[in-house]
């Protein structure tokens, strides 16, 4: 068998939120590490430089190429400088992963107007600000790939109405951007991670909750940032050259089942796990 060429060889990527909010591997960190392992040169953008530095150390340890850029992607000026840095450092821009996002639990009665605005700004507007700097640069070299990180919370209720609303907006934004920029060979897709175990959610978890989250989906296993990262590798690569405007759930099948029909199965698994 001939040796496989790295899937992102020659490409330059920006990953926003390329650090992790705690110890371990988040979605952005995993995507950045996997991109570099597949031959991309990666700009690791994060408002906390030291978090992105950790990602850079992982990449450098594996012989990959990456550099840190401190940016708050809620600022258009920072987004402009971030894209300029990618071009200055590596000469082009092929891939943008809009990964930054914050969660907010509760109903519309539970959140203040300021909290609502903040979630929309961080989860949706950042993608607009970063993308509109990236698109003209991608156009110059014949195209590119943008990957927006949504959530299965954007596809169904999640007891997190501000978050769910923002993640549903990301899906609408992805489809519109895909249509708008397809003629420039810029593909825009979105990943909807399910109940993955990452530093973002780890502080809210105990063993019982982790098990319930695992058993909620047909595959019955726990997902990690790596699962999201591999989906991003595919969507960023030329293997996906004819794929645009899709929402790819990475969720162990969580969104294909209905709780009422699935409940007995989940219960069975639960009993087995308990030795029953
Ligand atoms: N973990 C899950 O269970 C889960 C599930 C579905 C979707 N998601 C989505 O995945 C994405 C993030 O995943 P992660 O695991 O990388 O999260 P994370 O919280 O571990 O890391 C996000 C990084 O973004 C940085 N950041 C936050 N605000 C920023 C800003 N304004 N500018 C620049 N950097 C900023 C933080 O410093 C942090 O290093 C989010 O969009 C989230 O909604 C996560």
How would you summarize what this structure contains?
With 276 residues, the protein is an alpha/beta fold. Helix content is 45%, strand content 14%. It has a single domain, classed as NAD(P)-binding Rossmann-like Domain (Rossmann fold), CATH 3.40.50.
- Series of H and E elements: EHEHEHEHEHEHHEH
Uncertain stretches of 5 or more adjacent residues: 270-276
Helices and strands: which structural class? Answer: alpha/beta
CATH topological fold name: Rossmann fold
The helix tally amounts to 8
In round numbers, the mean pLDDT is 94
Give Rg in angstroms. 19 Å
The CATH class, by name, is Alpha Beta
What's the N-to-C terminus distance? 47 Å
Domain count, please report it: 1
**Which architecture would the CATH scheme give at its second level?**
3-Layer(aba) Sandwich
Question: How is the biggest beta sheet arranged?
Answer: 7 strands, parallel
What's the CATH H-level superfamily name?
NAD(P)-binding Rossmann-like Domain
Fraction of residues in H or I helices: 40-55%
How does the overall form come out from the CA principal axes?
globular
Q: Could you tell me the number of beta strands?
A: 7
**What fraction strand?**
5-15%
Please list the strands of the largest sheet in the order they lie side by side. 3-2-1-4-5-6-7
Q: Which molecules are bound besides the chains?
A: nicotinamide-adenine-dinucleotide
């Amino acid at each position: 068998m001939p040796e496989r060429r790295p899937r992102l060889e020659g490409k330059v990527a920006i990953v926003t939120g390329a650090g992790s909010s705690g110890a371990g591997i988040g979605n952005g960190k995993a995507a950045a590490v996997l991109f570099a392992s597949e031959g991309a040169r990666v700009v690791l953008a994060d408002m906390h430089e030291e978090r992105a530095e950790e990602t850079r150390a992982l990449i450098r340890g594996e012989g990959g190429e990456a550099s840190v850029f401190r940016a708050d992607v809620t600022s258009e000026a920072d987004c402009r400088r971030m894209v300029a840095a990618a071009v200055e450092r590596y000469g082009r821009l092929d891939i943008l992963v809009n990964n930054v996002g914050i969660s907010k639990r509760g109903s519309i009665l539970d959140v203040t107007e300021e909290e609502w605005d903040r979630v929309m700004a961080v989860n949706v507007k950042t993608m607009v600000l970063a993308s509109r700097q990236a698109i003209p640069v991608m156009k110059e070299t014949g195209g590119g790939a943008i990957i927006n990180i949504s959530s299965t919370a954007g596809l169904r209720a999640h007891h997190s109405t501000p978050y769910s609303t923002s993640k549903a907006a990301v899906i609408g934004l992805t489809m519109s951007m895909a249509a708008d920029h397809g003629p420039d060979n810029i593909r825009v897709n979105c990943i909807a991670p399910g109940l993955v175990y990452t530093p973002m959610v780890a502080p809210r978890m105990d063993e019982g909750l982790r098990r319930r989250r695992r058993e909620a989906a047909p595959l019955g296993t726990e997902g990690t940032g790596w699962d999201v990262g591999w989906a991003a590798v595919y969507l960023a690569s030329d293997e996906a050259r004819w794929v645009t405007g899709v929402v790819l759930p990475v969720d162990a099948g969580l969104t294909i089942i209905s709780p009422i029909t699935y409940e007995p199965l989940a219960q069975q698994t639960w009993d087995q796990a308990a030795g029953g």
